[in-house]
Amino acid sequence: MQQPLAYRMRPKNLDEVVGQKQLVGPGKVIRRMVEAKMLSSMILYGPPGTGKTSIASAIAGSTRYAFRMLNAATDTKKDLQVVAEEAKMSGTVILLLDEVHRLDKTKQDFLLPHLESGRLILIGATTENPYIAINPAIRSRTQIFEVLPLTEEDILQAVEHALQDKINGLGDYPVTIEEAALFHLARGTNGDLRSALNGLELAVRSTPPNEAGEIQLTLPIIEECIRRKALTHDKDGDAHYDVISALQKSIRGSDVDAALHYLARLVEAGDLTIICRRLLVIAYEDIGLGNPGAASRTVNAVLAAEKLGFPEARIPLAETVIDLCLSPKSNSSITAIDRALGDIKQGKAGSVPDHLKDSHYQGAKTLGRGVGYQYPHQNERGWVNQQYLPHSLKHARYYLPKSTGKYEQALASRLQQLQEWKKKSSS
Q: Flavoprotein: present as a keyword of the record (predicted)?
């Protein structure tokens, strides 16, 4: 039986890795390790199909070390012993240990001395947060790197390469693929390259050639093969972004029924990652200080949705959409930081006032660093009148509170009080 396309297209060196340039790009940490021949054990964590196994395979290919793959949940201590013995006899072995968060104490205790010797380079792969799910003894002996979901451009690049590759890919098949189908393959798999490639292979192998001898992949074929419906059959795929935009604008406009409608369309399309990211953006951009508790509830709901997956994920997502829709709205946080960024981009920075500069080094006082700083906690009001902004910006105002929610009304009241104190102190 032929191995799946995603397996056959695994990279043989770091240059062939799709995406993850923050780790394997020129000058980045994993490439530096490989080029300096200073590999250390590591844990790669992130969503399925984003390249954890590919990175491990590429590291092995680039270093020419032996490469072995085991699963912490299903393989035994004896399997680990076989790999360790190989490392003793033949030199360094790279061990990709999938589901490393499932490593029990017996296997862990066996691995620890081998990791310390450096003969066994462990690359643990997990979808779980290693700071929560992995034993501290393993964490302390590894570097932890987050593997990010692939972009649409990353997946499109990999798909096109697979269609052209005559050795490991599908280059021997006379395939044509509609633009809408290609974009849905990239978008509908939510950054999971494994799903995209295996869905592509199923589509190619199960679609009979037409009268011209071509295997023509249409949007309905790709929908069926990746089990994800497209939002519409528009050629350019703009509906994908239109629905996301409509969801945010409906929540911003407090129309709960419209927001639930657009959420349902995204749920039906299976876009869990996109929904979660967008709701987090909305919670902080549009609701913000109008109801800061809603942002915390959104974070918890997103975590629950990601743990549950569809179809159950629709429940916390719907609850969050209703909560955000009916919350008081405030964009004062985003407008405040954008005003501050606007000044920085225009070169309006200025020098930090001397009394605010770091004074925790010898000679700081000689330079006037920290001299004259007043400690607010020593004042009964918890506030003293002193300048914090650079002199050239001392009159700048970035935060302009709104009065749409009780919380921000309280912030506005406190800000007004501080401004009155400042005015009295300066007069």
A: no
